[in-house]
């Protein structure tokens, strides 16, 4: 959710229809959403390269959420109550960090 002081808004082509809403939420931000492809108007090589550059920025935000969805099965939230779902969502990043970075922590603490 934009806070209003953004200078750029990145997104894939699904956000093209949301331009009015994004302009209201962040009026100072420039729109850097990818251009949409259609059969009648294919993208030029320059547009494809521009979309690639924009996608690199989006990937840095999207790729860290992969363990949530695919590895640990947090793609859909089951109805268990708001508090339980919130606790699960807040505990998941801590568990992922332990899984990812925990092995260096199990080494020797001080030299003998």
TrEMBL record:
<feature type="region of interest" description="Disordered">
    <location>
        <begin position="32"/>
        <end position="60"/>
    </location>
</feature>
<dbReference type="GO" id="GO:0003677">
    <property type="term" value="F:DNA binding"/>
</dbReference>
<feature type="domain" description="Transposase IS4-like">
    <location>
        <begin position="5"/>
        <end position="97"/>
    </location>
</feature>
<dbReference type="InterPro" id="IPR002559">
    <property type="entry name" value="Transposase_11"/>
</dbReference>
<dbReference type="GO" id="GO:0004803">
    <property type="term" value="F:transposase activity"/>
</dbReference>
<dbReference type="GO" id="GO:0006313">
    <property type="term" value="P:DNA transposition"/>
</dbReference>
<protein>
    <submittedName>
        <fullName>IS4 family transposase</fullName>
    </submittedName>
</protein>
<dbReference type="Pfam" id="PF01609">
    <property type="entry name" value="DDE_Tnp_1"/>
</dbReference>
